Amino acid sequence: MNLLQRLLYNPWFSLWVTGRGTADPAAAAPAERMMNMKIKRRMLVLAALALALTGGAQAVPASAKPSPGVQLQLTYNSGSGISGMAGGTAQIKNGISYMPANLVTIMGLEVKWNNADKTATFSGWNKSFSMKLGQSTGVLDGKKVSLGGTPYMADKQLYVPVKFVVAALEGGPVRWDAATNTIRANGLHMYRGYSEVFDGGVYSLSLDSGELYLTTKQNTKHKLAVLGRGLDVVDFTFERTPAGLTLLQVVNSYGEPHVHAVYYTYLVKNNSVIRQGHTNIHTSFGTAPVWADGKLIFNDGRTLRLIEDGTGAVSETVDIPKLLGTTVAKDVYYNVEALYPDVLLVRPTDTAFLTLVDRATGKQTLLYKQLLSAERQREVEQTDFMFPGDYIYFTGRTDNVFTFNLHRMDGSQDIIKTYTWPGSQN
After folding, report:
1. Is-contact 137 157, C-beta < 8 A?
2. What angle do CA 374, 377, 380 make, to 5 degrees?
3. 324 in helix, strand or coil?
4. What's the confidence (pLDDT) of residue 31?
């Protein structure tokens, strides 16, 4: 499966559902991260942002019963360039303003509901709080605190005190705008994070600071790397190497509609990174291999390194532009889609055409010229800036016969074709 397909079927886009009419009062929080669902989250977040309204400020009025028709507007920011507004319908009960619990998911928090003890738990990057239905105290970052109100159910949704949530997320004062019947608060912080468990350890990543940590079975925390600020949609892939090391690949998909991806690859030994690399490609490119002849492949887009499993020693280095006989061009990188002792399959980011390279001579073969009809060649030569490329994906090799999958953009069945390489010719 190529990266474009992985993006379209990735779990992070299933994070936000409304929860109305469900048995889960904290719905709209992620229930589980199922594979094969990535774009839905992004669309639903954008839909939630469209609910925001505008206005000024006064004191909140009192009422004995939940008041109808009250709006809520919260502004938030990540500290890494991401900001927005979240809004919806709020309620005022006994002079206390309440909001649907699910709205905090936009700020990067996950909401889990325990129906047995009627407790909602909110968790994000270095931020957590919990509260129980009908009780006015809760737990914030491990400490018992007053909620300033009592969580309750309405229309099968959990409502929680606005002032507590705003204070917990380090926002500004909660204000009442009588002219628009709106409760407002600004400057809430985002606590976006992503984590997965592998071999008993928890790998966690701040999507705002880019800090990557490993918390071991013994509950010791180790900082592995810093990926960079303002990450977007992230996925982890783990592998235990034959020598017992951990190979971690982090993919960050970004750019509307997530047409770019950065691959960060880490080789972890004894809770530390001993080798790392990263490259930036389009989501329409083919999947890069991580192994070749028992060696790990680390590619930074221009320099390819083969790494010994166990020691992390570099056994071979390939200067890709030099092999191709080209000068290093700014912003041009190479996605390696197959590596053999005699042949390299690369896809440069400028043309996005899959190219077979003779490693002995540097001779290059543009595969779309060999595999596509004249009409289809003209089509792929018309640059698609969102999803560039020839949609040719390598699937295997037998002797000098290379097999490829030709993806059909009209939704029809893919075509399988082969190319017979004549061999190295000096």
Report:
1. no
2. 155
3. helix
4. 31
Closest CA to 286 of 391, 173, 402: 391
pLDDT on residue 385:
85
Q: Identify the CA nearest to 127 among candidates 142, 113, 112, 114.
A: 142
Q: What string of DSSP letters covers 222-274?
A: EEEEE--S---EEEEEEEE-TTS-EEEEEEEEESTTT-EEEEEEEEEETTEEE
CB-based burial label for 240 (10 Å; 0-12, 13-18, 19+): exposed
Sign, CA torsion 59/64/70/73: positive
**SS (HEC) of 43-90:** HHHHHHHCCCCCCCCECCCCCCCCCCCEEEEEEEECCCCCEEEEEEEE
CB atoms within 10 A of CB 128: 17
3-state secondary structure (DSSP) of residue 99: strand
Nearest CA among 417, 410, 389, 416 for reference residue 286: 389
pLDDT at 356 over 50: yes
202: which DSSP letter?
E
Count Cα neighbours of 227 within 13 Å in the Cβ-side half-sphere.
Answer: 31
Collapsing DSSP to helix, strand or coil, 304 comes out as strand
pLDDT band at 405 (very low <50, low <70, confident <90, very high): very high
Give per-residue pLDDT as tens, 58-105.
Answer: 334 444 455 667 999 999 998 788 899 999 999 999 999 999 999 999
User: Nearest Cα to 85, choosing from 94, 76, 96, 72?
Assistant: 76
Helices (H), 169-311: none
Phi and psi, residue 196, nearest 5°: -145, 155
- 176 — pLDDT class (breaks 50, 70, 90): very high
Q: What is the pTM of this model?
A: 0.77
Triad 374, 378, 381: Cα angle to 5°: 135
Question: Is residue 305 classed as helix, strand or coil in its secondary structure?
Answer: strand
Confirm if 113 and 153 have CB atoms less than 8 A apart: no
pLDDT digits (tens, 9 = 90+) for 234-257: 999 999 999 999 999 999 999 878
> The tokens 């017979």 sit on which residue?
420
pLDDT confidence tier of residue 331, bands split at 50, 70 and 90: confident
- Residue 364: count other Cβ atoms within 10 Å of its Cβ: 17
